[in-house]
Every structure is written in structure tokens, then in C-alpha cells.
Write a structure and sequence with these properties.
Helices cover about 55% and strands about 20% of the residues. It contains two helices and three strands. It has a three-stranded antiparallel β-sheet with strand order 1-2-3, with helices on one face.
């Protein structure tokens, strides 16, 4: 896989997360960690899937409160 393919794939995944989770900012750090930030909330994960799982859990916990 070429570096351009990897970058384009990550960019598409970041766009999808942004579309699915309004108000959150997303990124992929140089360390390979994915992150999501909203106000004073910050989540980090080693993969996009793990990040999305953490987001769902975090948002679900807030609705239960």
C-alpha cells in the first residue's frame, strides 16, 4: 500500500467520524493514536474502531446520567 493510499484512507475515515458525531473534532496523531475532542472531553484510542466504541460508550453514559 502506498503512503498516499494510507493518507487518503485516514482522511475518509476522519470525514466519516465528523459526519457521524456532530460537535466533535477528530484526528490521527503521529503516534498512531486516533483522538476525539469536544469542549473539555478528550478520547484517545489505538484504532478508529476503538475510538468509535469509546465515543458510543461515552455518549451513552452521558444520556444515562
Amino acid at each position: 500500500m502506498h503512503m498516499e493510499d494510507t493518507v487518503q484512507g485516514a482522511a475518509l475515515q476522519l470525514q466519516q467520524l465528523t459526519a457521524d458525531y456532530s460537535g466533535w473534532r477528530f484526528g490521527l496523531g503521529g503516534s498512531g493514536h486516533w483522538w476525539a475532542v469536544r469542549r473539555n472531553e478528550c478520547l484517545r484510542a489505538r484504532s478508529r474502531d476503538e475510538l468509535e466504541l469509546k465515543l458510543r460508550e461515552h455518549l451513552g453514559a452521558r444520556q444515562d446520567a
